[in-house]
Amino acid sequence: MLATFPVTLILVLTALLYLRGWNHLRRAVPNVVPVWRAVAFLGGLLAIWIAAVSPFAMLDEELLTVHMVQHLLLMTAAAPLILVGFPILPLLHGLPKLVTLGAGGTLRRVRLLQRVECGLANPVFCWLASAAILIGWHVPWAFALGFSSEWWHRVEHASFLVAGLLFWRPVIPSGPSGPHPRWSMVLYLFLATLPCDALSAFLAFCDRVVYPSYLVEPRHFDISALHDQECAGALMWIWVTFTYLIPAVAITIRLLSGPELNEEALGPATPAKLRAGA
Asked: What are the CA-CA distances from residue 92 to residues 78, 84, 112 (Å)?
């Protein structure tokens, strides 16, 4: 089971660091990262806490359905909310000046991280990587490894968060001046449902318990291991379908409505603006 205190501490420190940098940016360039984006980022951290270390998460070794909810929260809630919060600028501006080496150091790190992030934003790579992580951890021997070892359990959760960040990166702009999704993202979201549908169908319609660990764990709920597995598969199919369908519809409506407008009223966060507030 995950050690709750270290993970909670890391999440709290990350939230404080983000808020410190966000407040710094807000004083220098109002609305460069609006309030609702900061709320989204904090919501993403809360989703991580619920999935990884909350009392709800303690049930994942007893119910596969809970285990599935954890994975879905990390991939389809925490990850997109974090990206919506434009985390790079606030987090870097939240660091002490001794770490960032002043304005120039901050700007250089912003540019470097943005270049790295753009390099990892290739849709084909992101789709393949996220699908491989999703399917890989549901292979019985890999699942058993994460089930039996706390360290591997941590790696498993971290992998699903990374998979979610990679998957949503081509869909969600990386900053106020980032590119907006195009028609290819609608196809991207549709194709992303395929590996999830295959896995959920296998779990829902398989006539045996795929993960024997759930046969030996004590059960405090009036539900069999096979029925629990069927519920987990059905939940995954419904959750993923709506999670990917809603942004696909939103992108389609936006593209059909005419020329895209910049989301931020004052335009992108230019280096000059950031330098003034550093």
From this structure: 20, 16, 12
